[in-house]
Prior knowledge:
Strand order of the largest sheet: 1-5-6-11-10-9-7-8
Radius of gyration: 28 Å
Mean pLDDT: 93
Helix content: 25-40%
Largest sheet: 8 strands, mixed
Structural class: alpha+beta
Low-confidence stretches: none
Number of strands: 16
Bound molecules: adenosine-5'-triphosphate, magnesium ion
Shape: elongated
Distance between the termini: 52 Å
Amino acid sequence: xxxxxxxxxxxxxxxxxxxxxxxxxxxxxxxxxxxxxxxxxxxxxxxxxxxxxxxxxxxxxxxxxxxxxxxxxxxxxxxxxxxxxxxxxxxxxxxxxxxxxxxxxxxxxxxxxxxxxxxxxxxxxxxxxxxxxxxxxxxxxxxxxxxxxxxxxxxxxxxxxxxxxxxxxxxxxxxxxxxxxxxxxxxxxxxxxxxxxxxxxxxxxxxxxxxxxxxxxxxxxxxxxxxxxxxxxxxxxxxxxxxxxxxxxxxxxxxxxxxxxxxxxxxxxxxxxxxxxxxxxxxxxxxxxxxxxxxxxxxxxxxxxxxxxxxxxxxxxxxxxxxxxxxxxxxxxxxxxxxxxxxxxxxxxxxxxxxxxxxxxxxxxxxxxxxxxxxxxxxxxxxxxxxxxxxxxxxxxxxxxxxxxxxxxxxxxxxxxxxxxxxxxx
Length: 426
Ligand code: ATP
Ligand code: MG
């Protein structure tokens, strides 16, 4: 008797099985190929960081730091956290590795992020982001390039209805002036504010602008707008971006209430939004964060970037049925009873060595022809190759298409089969 204990996965975290993993792989491939084409380089950093990093880089009064982090103590009592996003770690890493002392950098990362949120469609506790961070460019040219790059990504994925919203938060000085009038405005409407908004009123009043509460949304419509508080230089930066986008054929809408959840943004911020996902429609978000490097102890370095929510893109591809799965296997190797297991393995190895990129499953163990063909069909392989005793003596094998009826069962020399497969695989 075995004492069985069935343990299930954690809430808000998911397994990605082969049925679905092909979508993730194709999506990641398309996006990372485009990143290379624009000259961006990959950076990898740890999943765990000192909690302090996120407090200082993301900001104390943010959803992420206040209530969403997976934080715990090490055996020595040090507070560490699972990364909830990638910008803080990228900044730490480029500083720690001396990467932006003299040189600009165009970097990307990909991987799981962790936030203790209420799980729902498009909102998981472990989710994947592909992020880009650029250091050492004032913009707005590089900001425009980031938006061109993301637009090209949506096109390459086959997404049509995605909308770009942009705004400018100006410099810190602009935001300070705006903050003060905003506080006055919301003080005059304090009866409408919910607890969340009240708690932000004096610490992070800009966040009230993107409240989802309908009553608050109604008064936000009458609130003073950031663009009246932008300095000339901030206005010029934003206008420059808008002009470049128009010239390059990127459609956008200016949304004056777009503020982004994290504290470190300045100048342009943006979101790509789809209507096809319901409430969790933001698939990519980012903006400029010129102060952050200095705040983290580096010399002043302009910076800009974005993060894509990969889980949400996968949902979109599935919901809209955008892609067809292509076969994972080219050949399933079937063996006559009289052909030894070793001979099968040797033949498969020889084919793998001569046909570059061939994806082949070899039948394991014994089994009648009928059951082997059944398994071959189920594997999704395009062709079955049949090793029979007689054939082997004459240096030939049987081959038959499974996926469609393009090739009836025929006999070919090993050389011919090799050449045929080379054509099929290339
Ligand atoms: P939201 O307003 O949806 O909570 P956010 O402002 O917290 O988003 P960012 O920190 O800007 O999100 O992260 C960038 C992107 O990562 C989001 O636009 C979204 O696509 C994705 N993302 C963020 N949190 C989650 C999550 N819990 N599950 C899945 N994707 C997420
Ligand atoms: Mg969030």
